[in-house]
Amino acid sequence: MASKIHFYFDFISPYAYFAWRKLPVLAKKYNREIEAHPVVFGKLLDKWGQLGPAEIPPKRNWLNEYCLRYAALNGFKYNPPKKHPFNPLAALRMSLKEVSGVDQHRVIGSIFEGGWSYGADLGDLSTLISLLTKQSIDGESLSHKVLELDIKELLINETRCAIEKGVFGVPTIIIDNNLFWGNDQMDHIELLLGGKDPLDRERLKDQERPRAIDRKAFKSRINSDL
């Protein structure tokens, strides 16, 4: 049986939306099943000591330009959520397999599209319910589960397991223990799925180099010399 495509995402990321738009097509082409894993991006940032794009003004400006260009080139509407960043927890919990069941992929797609193509407030529970109801999904029923302690724990566990697998950002796609980060990895993913991955694994083993300097130590040294 072919390995699954594991998709790690947070609705707070436009890149995750872009990846989701293309991933089902690849999965169908290569007869692979997508296993979707909602995770809390903020917890990944905390774990690995990073800032989110929205927390770095020049990067935020670049992101806005990139997203508008990407949508124009790929022929879809781009209109980001009403508020950003927003609290994604309710949306993430709704999209857990244990909550949404057979509708999981439809729930994910509806929330992504509603937020990133039609400017919906993805941090507002009533908006999430409305987005799902429009797609004939019982959003009201799903909304009752997002405050349950076991559902909260499931999302915590998904995030913990992602970190254990080396996930450091979203979107991340893992196939046969190969980790791909970012929506711009689709060409590389297709090469892997098609049995044409050009990665030289023997050379990969030889890519590590000893560190000549540590950034924190370098910063301290500069300060002491001033």
CATH topology: Glutaredoxin
Average predicted confidence as pLDDT:
94
Give the H and E element order: EHEHHHHHHHHEEHHH
Q: What is the CATH-assigned architecture?
A: 3-Layer(aba) Sandwich
Strand order of the largest sheet: 2-1-3-4
Can you count the helices? 12
Q: Write down the Rg.
A: 19 Å
CATH superfamily: Glutaredoxin
Number of separate structural domains: 1
Number of strands: 4
Could you say which overall geometry the principal axes of the C-alpha atoms support? globular
CATH class: Alpha Beta
SSE-based structural type: alpha+beta
Instruction: Indicate the percent of residues in helices.
Output: 40-55%
Low-confidence stretches: none
User: How much strand content do the residues show?
Assistant: 5-15%
- First-last Cα distance: 62 Å
List keywords for this structure.
226 residues; Glutaredoxin; 12 helices; 53% helix
Task: Itemize the secondary structure elements and their pairings.
Elements: E1 5-9, H1 14-29, E2 34-38, H2 41-48, H3 57-74, H4 89-94, H5 97-100, H6 104-116, H7 125-133, H8 139-143, H9 149-164, E3 172-175, E4 178-181, H10 186-193, H11 201-205, H12 215-225
Helix pairs in contact: 1-6
Could you give a quick summary of the protein structure above?
The protein is 53% helix and 8% strand.
Structural description of this entry:
- This protein is of the alpha+beta class and 226 residues long.
- The protein has one domain (5-199): Glutaredoxin.
- Helix content is 53%, strand content 8%.
- It has a four-stranded mixed beta sheet, sandwiched between helices.
- Helix 1 (14-29) crosses helix 6 (104-116).
- The protein is globular.
